[in-house]
Amino acid sequence: MTAPLLDRESVGYGSAAVLSSVSFSLAPGDRVVLLGRSGSGKTTLLGAIRERLERAGSRVALVPQEAGLVPTLSVLRNALMGRLDDHGTLYNLTNLVRPRARDRTAVADILEPLGLVPEIDRAVERLSGGQKQRTALARAFFRGGAYLIGDEPVSALDERQGAEVLDEIGRRFETSVLALHDVALARSFATRIVGLKGGQVMLDGAPESLSEAEIGALYAL
Ligand SMILES: Nc1ncnc2c1ncn2[C@@H]1O[C@H](COP(=O)(O)OP(=O)(O)OP(=O)(O)O)[C@@H](O)[C@H]1O
């Protein structure tokens, strides 16, 4: 059993708690999906989990809700940013001006299952919402690491593409924590579903142990 990342703690902004008395542990191999209404605290909890993992020295790849891309730069250059903190300034600057062949090949391999190879040299500002989201995924895949934290990482993709991307996440990262709004996708991907409501963790269990009514109650007013 792994040490808890959060042990009956409050998480929020400044002195304002969004969630109180949260306990949360993560074991290698966990695929956790956070469910809950808009504003229930999924992004806030993801932030706290990421912070604890990084504080413990873990490498975490991130797909934020707002993709956080540089619009004027290409898909390739945005993906390269996943490893900026692995290198010094000179390497990063020269690689952004003229990406090294090795890095271009590595990014192209990542873009293949994401269906983005034809877009590799296009500026992100010229892409569709789904293509932008896949670029943010490519950046996280290029970064790699033991953990992926994703905040609605497939919200702009169609059902089939979303399922394929979740499979790819499962192949690339041993452990992941995602906020999703699609309950069916959550059930098929997760080994654990964590439900947030009313400032608390209302449920935490294997998908097969949770009834539709229990999950539905998370979304009731
Ligand atoms: N930077 C911030 N400063 C203060 N309060 C914030 C901040 N970000 C979010 N909140 C508040 O925290 C609460 C939880 O927000 P959070 O973004 O974690 O919810 P969420 O479940 O991810 O929602 P959504 O599904 O809409 O993305 C909300 O009441 C929100 O107003």
How would you portray this structure in words?
The chain is an alpha/beta fold. The chain folds into two domains: 136 residues, Rossmann fold (3-Layer(aba) Sandwich), CATH 3.40.50.300; 74 residues, no CATH class. It has eight helices and eight strands, in the order E-E-E-H-E-H-H-H-H-E-H-E-H-E-E-H. A six-stranded mixed β-sheet has the order 4-5-6-3-7-8, sandwiched between helices. A two-stranded antiparallel sheet has the order 1-2. Helix 4 packs across helix 5. It is globular. The model has no long low-confidence stretch (mean pLDDT 94). It binds adenosine-5'-triphosphate. The site of adenosine-5'-triphosphate has 11 residues, from helix 1.
Low-pLDDT regions = none
Q: Please count the helical segments.
A: 8
Average of pLDDT: 94
Helix share bin = 25-40%
Portion in beta strands: 15-25%
CATH class of the largest domain: Alpha Beta
What's the SSE pattern? EEEHEHHHHEHEHEEH
Computed structural class: alpha/beta
The overall number of domains is 2
Heterogens = adenosine-5'-triphosphate
> How many whole angstroms does the radius of gyration measure?
18 Å
